[in-house]
Every structure is written in C-alpha cells, then in structure tokens.
Amino acid sequence: MDTHEYTPWRLAIGDLFTPERTHWPADRFELRYFDGSFLLQICEANPSSKSIEAFRHGAMHIGLHFEQGVIFFLFRIEGTWAWSDQAFSIHLVSEKDRSPGEPTENKFVPLTVVLVDSNTGRVAALRLVTMSPRFTKTFHGLIDRQRASPFDPETHRKTIAALYAKYKNSKSLAAAALIRERAGSNIV
Questions:
Q1: Which of 15, 49, 71, 87 has the fewest CB neighbours in a 10 Å radius?
Q2: Is beta strand 60-67 parallel, antiparallel or unpaired with respect to 70-77?
C-alpha cells in the first residue's frame, strides 16, 4: 500500500512556480523527476514576447548522453535556447519521488516544460511535449543503471567536472549523445 501523500502542484501562467520562491537564477534550468514523470524548468529574466512565442512553438529537440555513470539530459528550442544540458542522477532525487512510476513500455511519455521569469518566480509559459517510446526506454534504462550502482556525491561532482572539461559545451555533448530526437507533438 502506498502511504505517502501527494500534494498537488498546480502550474498556471502568472502564478509562482513554487509558492516559496520569487527569484531564480537567470539562464538556468533544472530537470525534475517525480515517480517516472519529467518536468523541465527553464528560467529566463524578463522573457520577451518573442522568447515566449519561440518557447511555446519552436521545435524542441532532446537528447541523452551517458558517460561514467552520469546522465546528461540535453535540449534545445529553436528560436530561443541553444543546446543546453543538465547532469542527472536518480540518487539526487528525493527518496519519495524516485519510484519508476507507471510502466512506459511502447508509450510516448510527456515532458512538461515550464518557462519561469527568474526576476519574479512566476510562470511565463507552459508547454507539454512527448518523448518517444525509444527515448523513454533509453532514459529509464539509464536511470535503472544508476539505481543499481553505488553513489558518492563527491565522486559524482568530480566526474561531472571532468566531463565538462572533456566536452567544452552542450553542443559537443549533444553531438556525442546516445540518442537525440525532436520532441513529439505539443499536447497543449
């Protein structure tokens, strides 16, 4: 029996992304994982209407790079964000959110993408795209590999630093990715 309670997280344009924060670092992003679901938070200072339009409608590309036990989630949005990356470890996700969630075999899985005005902490735009069954299977397979491996935070940090020295930018990580694809249809 599942005993942990879920507090609904309501996202709406104009509302705070999280009730306790009114500022976020500009030009930063974070991939969040909740029981098999994915959310990409992108922070931009005073996003212009042009940036919001590109965020909402520009083709979105995603990728995965895996090296030395580290998963890098890669993304770019045409017209607004060049290739960017986020190192990911399931071991850094809250214990209560680590479950693999519902089976995703042969299913498209949603990726919620949220543009947050870093100056106000408010949601500027929302987007929901899909990750293909092949992409999702690869991602969950890499997460399972991490689950099965021992984890040391300091080693993880040093490994990421060494990989950033090897790959000078996100574009070079994307070029070496295991998988890249155009994210599926906008659902919203």
A1: 49
A2: antiparallel
Domain membership of residue 151 as a residue range: 28-182
What are 12-56's pLDDT values in tens digits? 999 999 999 999 999 999 999 887 789 999 999 999 999 999 999
8 within domain boundaries? no
DSSP for 33-96, please give it: EETTEEEEEEEESS--HHHHHHHHHS-EEEEEEEETTEEEEEEEETTTEEEEEEEE-GGGS-GG
Judge whether 3 lies within some domain. no
Asked, for residue 23, whether it belongs to a domain, the answer is no
d(CA 39, CA 83): 17
3-state secondary structure of 109: strand
Q: Tokens 């070029």, residue?
A: 175
Model pLDDT for residues 100-153, shown as the tens digit of each residue: 666 567 788 899 999 999 999 999 999 999 999 999 999 999 999 999 999 999
Is 39 part of any domain?
Answer: yes
Shortest CA distance to 63 belongs to which of 44, 47, 82?
Answer: 82
pTM for this entry:
0.89
